Amino acid sequence: MALATTRFLRQVGAVALGFAIGSSLVFGDVAHAADGTPAKQLFGKVQLPSNSAASPIGFYAKGCMAGAVAIPTDGPTWQAMRLSRNRRWGNPAMISLLERFSQDAVSLGWGSGILIGDISQPRGGPMLTGHASHQIGLDADIWFQPKPAKALSAAAREDMPFVSMLDKSKFLTVNPKRWTKTHANLVMQAASYPQVERVFVNPAIKKKLCETWTGDRGLLGKVRPVYGHDEHFHIRMHCPSGAANCKAQAAVTPGDGCDKSLAWWFTKEPWAKPAVNPNAKPVKPRFTMLSDLPKACTAVLAAPAASEKSATFGTAYAAQPANDADAAIQDVINTTAGDLPESEIPIPQARPALQ
Length: 355
Description:
single chain, alpha+beta, Muramoyl-pentapeptide Carboxypeptidase, domain 2, two-stranded antiparallel ribbon, 27% helix, globular
């Protein structure tokens, strides 16, 4: 085990060993993880958040989350989807924003509310499948389908198919039979909140908005084109005020984004298969390890768990009495605030970062 890893594990050892009962990952497991278990397997198996103050740690695609809260599976103006993934956890600021957005969506005529896809895992971190980001509780996916008036069953939430907004018979073209003005209003409503940094959509949807949006053109700059995102859109928040351990993404370039950066998506370059050297030796995939994340993420994994009831939105904001475990974990987080990752997003080869 590397000396640096050993030193840090000693820092959190007293916390983890003292609170092994009720913790989702005891110190011994963390120590073993540092020797070779991919981080996605560690974070993917944790069922509950840490019982500590809310803190996004690291970058959107390289970090973790302390003190997460869950949005209830059902709300007056939302329903959470794909419940088996256990990804309805987020920073309290994100959960609060989703509640407000769901209410505004109804006012826009978006059925009886929104369908919420993935937010983050209980302690954030890399996921077993599906996302490079969503690691610090400040990203959320919203389906391009409104919440039906009648609550969906658990089975329906697992099996209900996505609906693409694209015309699959034409290259990067929005399907006019599916895309409506209300869809546009919904995306732009998400972009209108000051705490929202970016809204990711398919390039065809961005192009459609550039051609048709007659509202505040300044908000269009927040709407960023990216691969996929034709069946849902992705809301990303700024680091909350006072979140010293959260690494911000570079600011969006001024303007509406309806320029050469968008036109690039309609060329062959972003869709071309990467060149393959037949003589090159196969490269073994390298997984993100716990040691690749901010050091405070080790403490987050080792922390005692909050109960689902106490950490579900609606009760999670009640002031909780301070305890020694929370103080010790927060101290480790604070002392490693400078140990944050670079702001690149690890995504497949030949695919650009979310910008």
